[in-house]
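Hi R.,

Here are the chain sequences for the assembly we discussed:
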Amino acid sequence: MNPERSASIVGISEYPLRLARGVSPMEIKVDCIRAALDDAGLRWSDIDAVYDAGDGEAGGGLQLSAYLGLRPSVIDTTQVGGSSYEFQAAHALRDIAAGKCRVAILSYGSTAASNRFAIGTGGLHRGGGGNWQANMEMPYGSTLIANYAMVKQRHMHEYGTTTEQLAGISVSTRRHAMRNPEAVKAMTDLEFVGVNEITAADVLESRIVADPLHLLECCMISDGGGAVVIASAEVARDARKPPVWIIGSGEATKYCENDGDITTSAGAQSGPEAFGHAGVRPDEVDIAMIYDSFSITVAVCLEDIGFCKKGEAGDFVAGGRLAFDQPGRLTLNTDGGGLSSNHPGMRGIFLLIEATRQLRGESTSQVPDARIALAHGNGGMLGSTHTGGTVILARD
Amino acid sequence: MPKRPQPRFPEPNTEPYWNGVKERELRYPVCTVCDQVVFTPRMHCPACGARDLEWRTSSGEGTVYTFSVVRQNRMPGFIDLGAYSVAYIDLDEGFRLLSSVVGVDDPTRDIHIGQRVRVEFEEQEEGEYPIPVFRPV
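And here is the predicted structure of the full complex:
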């Protein structure tokens, strides 16, 4: 294992509500930053690095820093979709290791649900047009969900993957969600039909939103947010909670290309890069926090990162065998995921948060003696232009 | 008549493509330096960076690479359509295009991967550009 212990996640906070009417995204960010600092035992004035994904209407890294009242020596405005926070965590490790900062803050706030923001069905390039990609795509009425559905369609065609197999992802994730009081409240507040455990049959019987994706294979649209404090080893030693070290990372992009394979994601590059950096193998990972925008996102990313071979994810996830209490090495998305707990648009920050809870022993679906966790974010559109960001975490 | 959104200009990367569409031709750029087919259209070759591109005309025939049928959307122009397909079409000249497969009784049953399709230029209720869509051969 990579012996480097330069940067640690020392503070985390997930906004408790998924329907927060009358609350602004900036309030969510500020509340979460304060809570994450409390979790770490640090003060507002300790922050010397700000990472900003352009959310919350702050208006960029300068404006966010000004709003917060901070004078950071590092500002990183990486915005690459829902995986922005994995990219930012990788950059925080780099910046802290280089001695440019000691206490980095990542934050997120969104009121997508209260604003009735149709992330999945509102169409690509909403309100826009007039750029090279929009001009080629807008006339066809594709939706974000249809973009991912085309990946599932091709995966089923090439590998014989079935919806019944992939339903195992929704089944495991819902099982975890039902153990997480905030996820139960989320599903209740967002008026899910049936706040209960589900079976593969329930997934198959749920309506099709865009063939071949069923409703119960699609993430929720919620309000929410969070914050993560990443600090130097020196700071981490005095933090309130045990350190969770960032030991490896990988970043990659992928596009729709002529002759390209739509069933392979940017994770095929970022995953091996992160494992090489961390000096661990996929079979040593206890927890995989994979961005579950849809069932197919998880399936493709599990394969690409190296947890199973290309084409074998259907069998790997079938029957809900990635739930925390099932036999087998790997456990998936123990907070309930985007499918059943929290998805305000850019879920990447929650992957880091739940991975940290697991390595501290604080999860509501705790894996005994978890030592190594992986967070993998997929940002943008899985079926066309997207990013993959992989972060590997370890406790002492 | 369909009410698909029109491309918007000025947009120099895709303007030659849409000028071709107006003349009922599917055109695509090829890099004259490295022979790479450049698609989605750009003003440079993404493989080598060269700006020396040549526009050619496609036969308009290709194969369905993958597709979905949109059953739920919240987009003006599409809300009233009912279920409609979106598909990636691999044209025989080696470029992949997002489009729609039309002219089938039931898009949820009558479209499949590997299906041979041919372009047609669908007139729109508004706007000067027809939209290229594909029909099974």
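DSSP finds two helices and seven strands in chain B. Chain B touches chain A through 46 residues (CB under 8 Å).

Let me know if anything looks off.

Best,
T.
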